[in-house]
Amino acid sequence: MKRSRNKRLDKLVFVLVHDVEYYLTQEYKRIISNNGPMSSFTRQQRIREMEAEEVDDDDREMMIVAPGTAEDVNWQVWLFVNENTAYVVQVAEPNLIISCTCFDYQQRYKPCKHMYLLKIHTNRSLYFSPPSVTSTNVIQSVSISETATITPTISRTSAFIQQCIDINQILWYANQNILTMQQYMTEDDGQTLFDAYQRSLQVFQSIKNKYEVHLRRSHTQE
């Protein structure tokens, strides 16, 4: 790779970010439109988002402390009910809010109200950890015997699709890093990265082909 452009990797990044995200977004919308009532996970996230939205502009300005340096990725967000306590919200370059030190986030590993507040304040995006990390928290607390009958498959599918979209957004944010790294990256590392992207694209294409009829039907209705 040296300092030359890897056109195969560039093309894969473009396809993953543009074509894959489009189809995943369409599939997510399709699932949501057929899902009826809001899922428990979506409802819980909306509650946290609304709590952040209720904070007026002046209070929000006072509650959020920006990092002292450009290299610092940690923001401080003061507790909603206690002005003497602040949580640390971490932001990944360039515009992705990834974690918070509050109890809610540490229990669920999903965006909390402090992260939503910073999202409103900075217009950054939120990162949702993969479902496998906290799959038991996506649904309400029920006994093991009840889980299989209470949790709709379609709700789990929609959660997985949304996570795919979120991961794809992370890949978009990584584009600039990839372009920079190619100047220093070894050929082996470049091949490893390319192979990983290629496998992801092959899996996506295989699943997309499986539902091609539904996709064509959806496109004709738009």
Protein model, in words:
InterPro entries: Znf_SWIM. Pfam families: SWIM (PF04434). Keywords: Metal-binding, Zinc, Zinc-finger. This is SWIM-type domain-containing protein. The protein is α+β, with helices and mostly antiparallel strands. It contains 10 helices and 5 strands; from the N terminus they run αααββββααβααααα. The protein has helices at about 5-35, 40-55, 55-65, 105-110, 115-120, 145-150, 155-175, 175-180, 185-210, 210-220; strands at about 65, 75-80, 85-90, 95-100, 125. It has a 5-stranded mixed sheet. It is globular.
Distance separating the two termini? 43 Å
The total of helices stands at 10
Adjacency order of strands in the biggest sheet: 1-2-3-4-5
How many domains? 2
Return the string of H and E elements.
HHHEEEEHHEHHHHH
CA radius of gyration:
20 Å
Topology:
Blueprint: H1 7-34, H2 40-53, H3 57-63, E1 64-65, E2 74-78, E3 86-92, E4 96-100, H4 103-108, H5 113-122, E5 125-126, H6 144-150, H7 153-173, H8 175-181, H9 187-210, H10 212-221
Parallel strand pairs: 4-5
Antiparallel strand pairs: 1-2, 2-3, 3-4
Helix pairs in contact: 1-7, 1-9, 2-5
Organism: Phycomyces blakesleeanus (strain ATCC 8743b / DSM 1359 / FGSC 10004 / NBRC 33097 / NRRL 1555)
InterPro entries: Znf_SWIM
Protein name: SWIM-type domain-containing protein
